[in-house]
Design goal:
alpha+beta, 3-stranded antiparallel β-sheet, 3 helices, 54% helix, elongated
């Protein structure tokens, strides 16, 4: 396996991890709202000894989409002669 395919596979794997793992820690889901409205309103809570930090889940999804794009662009890069 050459390095560009390895980078593509690792980037895709990390994109999956970045989007899937924080999904277990989300809060704010409302069952009577639409999917898009819930996607905008849910967030991930991080509890520290000095307080809470709330990060919107859509930021994790955006980071995973960037990693997926980087992986696919590495995989589909034209070969040099």
């Amino acid at each position: 396996m050459n390095t560009s395919k390895l980078r593509a596979a690792l980037s895709s794997f990390f994109a999956f991890i970045v989007s899937f793992v924080p999904a277990f820690f989300t809060s704010g889901w409302k069952g009577n709202e639409s999917f898009i409205k819930n996607l905008i309103s849910i967030h991930v809570d991080f509890h520290f000894f000095f307080g809470n930090i709330r990060i919107p889940y859509r930021f994790f999804l955006a980071a995973s989409m960037i990693l997926l794009y980087a992986g696919f662009s590495q995989y589909l890069k034209p070969k040099k002669n």
